[in-house]
Amino acid sequence: MTDEIYDPAYVAALFDRCSLRYRRWSAVSSFGFVWLWRRHCVDRLRGQSQVARIQNGQVTKRAPKCPQIVDLMAGTGEIWPHVFDAFPRAQITAIDISPNMHAHAVTRLHQTRSRQITHLNANALDTDLPTSSADMVVATFGLKTFNADQQTVLAHQIARILREGGCFSLIEASDPKGWLLRPLYRAYLDRALPLLERVFLHGAQDFSMIGAYTQNFGDCAHMADALRAAGLNVTYQRHFFGCATSVAGTKPIAPDAPAP
User: Fold this and answer.
1) Which of 44, 155, 172, 244 could connect to 226 by a Cys-Cys bridge, CB 3.0–4.6 Å?
2) How far apart are CA 140 and CA 69, in angstroms?
3) CATH number at residue 171
4) Cα 252 vs. chain centroid, distance in angstroms?
5) 204: pLDDT confidence band, cut at 50, 70 and 90?
């Protein structure tokens, strides 16, 4: 099963099944932390958008008024309100492998912003978005569905689609190794959450996969290394004792060619 859960067809079917209940159940089962962590993710994106403008000790031209933002593994778009608070005129390209997730994002949550959001039903690992087409890349709670090799592929995709001076911010639920209360955290994910899901969601066992995914994922350390290897500047951060970790950074601006 360890290999199967990273198969794109398995992941798409998993999220298709949970799409109707995803937004509410993820908020309840995380005690609201997902909302806070999404906001942290956008805060880091906003900070990196300022860092990206610094070149040779000088601040470069203004950030774009209508940034092109790619949301990888977008789900039902819970991060978009935070994105629009930070970047009101942003144009979002939302990528998700689950068609049902897209359907719920459009019909139930974000109709008023439909002109600013383009949806692509695709695998983030092999999207054909043009090279250097994105000012920013964001992803929340989708990294754990990729194994280490897939994370490396994703890192190169992010580096490819970001323009020079572009920035990214990714956050993921993690396994807080070394935390004193980690045994309770693991007991909740591995035993309590599956039981609650079976009782309250009529025997479903989809959301409880977060236990297996987070344990295999560990944290964002490998993703940070993969992004650095792809040529990006990266900073790594832990949230709430390591229950979530994030990576954020920029694509370096190439130095100006010397004057003849």
Assistant:
1) 155
2) 13
3) 3.40.50.150
4) 21
5) very low
